[in-house]
């Protein structure tokens, strides 16, 4: 048939049911049925083979991760438990943490993000903290610098006395609680209504290492935050400047530092005023000129440029 007659039905060519006539390319001739059948069967065979390959990969992955959930023995107590458990619901999470509290004998390590700790958040775990203190268990807590301004945290630390040591950082990782370096609890979803209970030795050891490295970088709660060395710029505004220089949006900066977006933008406005910037682009330039786009300089090292107009903005 003429090629133009097949144009309304393009699938005939796409499926190769018709092909050009070698003697006249303006005409099409039918493909032999056995050739079409062989090609279709080959395609089906390839699809089935690919499906088998994917299924095999899934099975291998399931077997691998299922192995993490098998029973593991606690070398210190001789008891057994699952290496990874998903705790669904706040009641189940609280119950599992109460069990870990009862079994804890040496130390508890925690990372508490989110800025100022609310009274109800502190009271939820107070009974566990008091139980641990009564048994002589030592506790070390990591917070963001913003938490220093919460009276509830100060009251909690005063109540716990020497049993708790707290330090702060500009930003910390998501919530983490470690008991005796044998069991860890981490969030499993954004609203923290699910958690993972981890007892796999390699995973727990990794989390302990992360905690210890953050602890070495943190500043004791009883120690004032270091001065930025630039008049009118607070420690928090230095941290915001560094994150702005990395290209982060206001909401991301606020979340990482544990403050509200509104507070973050107020600090950015004061930072702009102090550095004499009238736009975000100019602010980025002034941040770099003032040396606020990286770690603090050694004492006495001057900035690489003139930061602009100064003011006495408070933290």
From TrEMBL:
SUPFAM superfamilies: C-terminal effector domain of the bipartite response regulators
Pfam families from the UniProt entry: GerE
Highest taxon of the lineage: Bacteria
Domain spans labelled HTH luxR-type: 226-291
Renumbered residue ranges of the record's region Disordered: 291-315
SMART domains noted in UniProt: HTH_LUXR
Gene3D superfamilies, alphabetized: Winged helix-like DNA-binding domain superfamily/Winged helix DNA-binding domain
Protein name listed in UniProt: Helix-turn-helix transcriptional regulator
């Amino acid at each position: 048939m003429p090629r133009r007659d097949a144009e309304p039905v393009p699938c005939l060519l796409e499926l190769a049911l018709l092909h050009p006539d070698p003697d006249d390319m303006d005409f099409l001739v039918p493909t032999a049925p056995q050739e079409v059948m062989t090609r279709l069967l080959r395609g089906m065979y390839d699809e089935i083979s690919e499906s088998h390959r994917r299924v095999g990969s899934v099975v291998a992955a399931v077997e691998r991760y299922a192995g993490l959930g098998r029973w593991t023995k606690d070398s210190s107590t001789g008891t057994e438990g699952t290496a990874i458990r998903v705790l669904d619901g706040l009641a189940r999470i609280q119950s599992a943490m109460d069990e870990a509290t009862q079994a804890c004998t040496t130390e508890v390590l925690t990372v508490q993000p989110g800025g100022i700790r609310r009274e109800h958040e502190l009271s939820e775990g107070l009974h566990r903290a008091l139980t641990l203190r009564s048994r002589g268990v030592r506790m070390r807590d990591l917070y963001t610098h913003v938490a220093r301004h919460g009276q509830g945290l100060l009251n909690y630390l005063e109540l716990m006395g020497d049993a708790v040591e707290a330090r702060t950082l500009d930003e910390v990782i998501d919530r983490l609680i470690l008991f005796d370096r044998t069991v860890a609890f981490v969030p499993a979803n954004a609203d923290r209504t699910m958690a993972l209970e981890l007892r796999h030795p390699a995973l727990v050891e990794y989390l302990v290492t992360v905690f210890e490295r953050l602890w070495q970088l943190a500043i004791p709660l009883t120690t004032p935050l270091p001065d930025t060395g630039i008049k009118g710029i607070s420690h928090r505004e230095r941290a915001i400047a560094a994150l702005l220089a990395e290209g982060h949006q206001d909401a991301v900066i606020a979340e990482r530092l544990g403050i509200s977006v509104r507070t973050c933008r107020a600090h950015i406005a004061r930072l702009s005023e102090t550095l004499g910037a009238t736009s975000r682009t100019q602010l980025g330039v002034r941040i770099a000129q003032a040396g606020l786009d990286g770690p603090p300089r050694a004492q006495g090292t001057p900035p690489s440029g003139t930061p602009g107009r100064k003011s006495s903005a408070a933290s």
